[in-house]
Specification:
globular; about 45% helix; 15 helices; 3-stranded antiparallel beta sheet; about 10% strand; about 400 residues; alpha+beta; 5-stranded mixed beta sheet
Length: about 400
């Protein structure tokens, strides 16, 4: 006889379709409420469990024993899953692809990134006029794509970069909307297919026009072992979505937080403060707001034994806002990063952790810091209506409604 183990507690006993509806309606509120009411291990459905304690999060993300996998085959075969990319691979295939890309994110390339960031900020600010109202997320998306192009291809992309930025933004938006299977010709699915074709066309041209110079740009590395076009396309697509689009989200959230906290905004020129503010914004508004893994063997968490094929949800939004690890968790307080950091060393994971943590984490944090400091040295962004701003939890935590007035109060 097979031994059975009690399931963790959860809303509606973890078995109600109401949970699916509540999650779809407001994922952030639902997951937060579930963790606060039912603890660190919460049944959401018979096959979905939320893990909120840093110890369990860390054990899942650093697993090397083959107890969990990142994604199932069904997910990898999805219409927008980009199945040949490193982040959607497993085992030896994943190791090969990560080793191929790793040199593009070495610390010795930080100087090049910082120069590109400064130049990008200068060009962006030069195009603004004092008193102009800007859509902050749109501006940060174009800026992040401009800088990202330098990192991907070692050159500016001009209009092609704008096409890529627009296609990525559309895909991020459309995949977050409720929709029927991809083969059903709904309005959303038709728009999604058009955006994917636009992305394919722009990426194909980028690959075709690239002239390797023996360097370590991401595209140099991707083309180094003559892989099939589909593999390079999938890698570039996921780099754009998981890297440069999320950088735009992080920057927008940071300027929103600074706009609401004048004392923090006024300290951005202080030594180390821009980095602390970037870390704090990533805590409060993590672009990667939830991570999923799937068990392939029985997995123990919080005293419960979870069976194989259980989907484990790890939510940065939930754990980062837990009062046990961060006093006054709803407050934007960059000063907390001048001390010892969180009360639990594994309570902060904006870039994931372990062997599958973001390969470009240090560069992304540095880029956010440099852009924020350089831009703030030139202008102040005065929020138009902070009450209209809301988080939209799609593939990334997208900021909606962040509009600001450009104030040229400083010059460098």
């Amino acid at each position: 006889m097979t031994a059975t183990h009690p399931a963790p507690p959860g809303p509606h006993g973890g078995r109600g379709t109401s949970n699916v509806a509540d999650f779809a309606l407001d994922p952030l509120a639902f997951l937060t409420r579930a963790a606060r009411e039912y603890g660190d291990v919460v049944s959401l459905t018979p096959t979905n469990v939320l893990l909120a304690h840093p110890d369990d999060v860390h054990r899942v993300l650093t697993d090397r024993g083959g107890n969990v996998v990142k994604v199932s085959e069904a997910v990898r075969r999805g219409p927008t899953g980009f199945p040949l990319a490193m982040m959607n691979s497993e085992g030896a295939d994943w190791e090969r692809k990560r080793a191929r890309l790793r040199p593009a994110f070495r610390s010795d390339r930080l100087g090049h990134l910082e120069r590109a960031a400064r130049e990008g900020v200068a060009r962006t600010v030069d195009a603004w006029t004092d008193g102009q109202v800007v859509d902050v997320h749109r501006e940060m998306s174009l800026l992040a794509m401009r800088i990202g192009a330098e990192h991907i291809a070692g050159r500016e992309l001009g209009e092609r970069g704008e096409d890529l930025a627009a296609a990525v933004a559309a895909i991020m938006r459309l995949t977050s909307q409720p929709r029927l299977p991809a083969w059903v010709p709904t309005r959303v699915n038709r728009k999604l297919r058009r955006s994917l074709r636009t992305l394919d066309t722009a990426l194909a041209a980028l690959i075709r026009e690239h002239r390797p110079k023996g360097g370590d740009t991401a595209l140099d590395r991707l083309l180094s072992d003559d892989p099939p076009f589909e593999e390079v396309r999938d890698e570039l697509a996921t780099l754009l979505m998981s890297g440069y689009e999320t950088t735009a989200d992080a920057l927008t959230w940071l300027f929103f937080a600074l706009g609401e906290h004048g004392s923090a905004d006024g300290r951005m020129a202080d030594d180390g403060y821009a980095l602390a503010a970037a870390k704090e914004s990533l805590r409060l508004y993590p672009p990667a707001w939830v991570i999923s893994r799937e068990t392939v063997r029985p997995f123990e968490a919080g005293g419960y034994v979870l069976p194989p094929r259980t989907v484990l949800g790890l939510s940065q939004w939930v754990t980062h806002r837990d009062v046990r690890w961060f006093p006054d968790p709803e407050e934007f307080r960059p000063e907390r990063w001048f001390g010892r950091g969180p009360a639990h060393r594994n309570a902060y994971f904006p870039f994931g952790a372990g062997p599958r943590g973001c390969v470009g984490a240090s560069m992304a944090l540095r880029e956010t810091e440099v852009i924020a400091r350089e831009l703030r040295a030139r202008v102040r962004l005065e929020l138009v209506d902070p009450r209209a701003v809301r988080p939209h939890p799609a593939l990334a935590l997208q900021p909606r409604g962040v509009r600001a007035i450009v104030r040229r109060e400083r010059q460098v």
